[in-house]
Amino acid sequence: MRNVAESEKITINLGFVDLGHVDLLVREGFYGNRTDFIRTAIRNQLERHSNEAKQSVSRRALQLGVCHLSAQELGSAREADEKLDIRVLGLLSIGSDVTPELALATIRSITILGALHATPAIKAALADRIT
User: Keywords, A to Z (predicted)?
Assistant: First the structure.
């Protein structure tokens, strides 16, 4: 079983007044902490725009969720003389068993909305193919 993180850490800058409002709502018990407030705010905005997002996902033919590519899968694509155009909304994980040469031979393009987990060598090899 592979170990894939359930979330990605992000950092935001917030104005002092906005931060004070967040802290006030936390202190008043509306939220457990700042992170709880931020997650709730993000989920509310995602829900607010869910129809537009669904239409865009469909239009762009994006795979939702977690996609993992192993050396075996990419080796099969190479044997079939296939070039992959990978489109993911979520997490794309490229196995540590994948060499830069195999990735270059089999992956034509990567569109990632979310996070890419891969070795630094794979990221460097595919840098001009990632959007």
Answer: DNA-binding
118 occurs within a structural domain:
yes
CB 64 within 8 Å of CB 91: no
9-51 pLDDT, tens digit each = 899 999 999 999 999 999 999 999 999 999 999 999 999 999 9
Only one residue has tokens 């894939």, namely 4
Q: Do 95 and 125 belong to one domain?
A: yes
Q: CA of 104: how far to CAs of 21, 61, 108, 131, in Å? A: 49, 22, 7, 15
Are residues 59 and 44 both part of a single domain? no
Structural domain including 42 reads: 16-48
Residues in a beta bridge with 116: 92
Digit-coded pLDDT (tens) for 54-89: 898 888 888 889 999 999 999 999 999 999 999 999
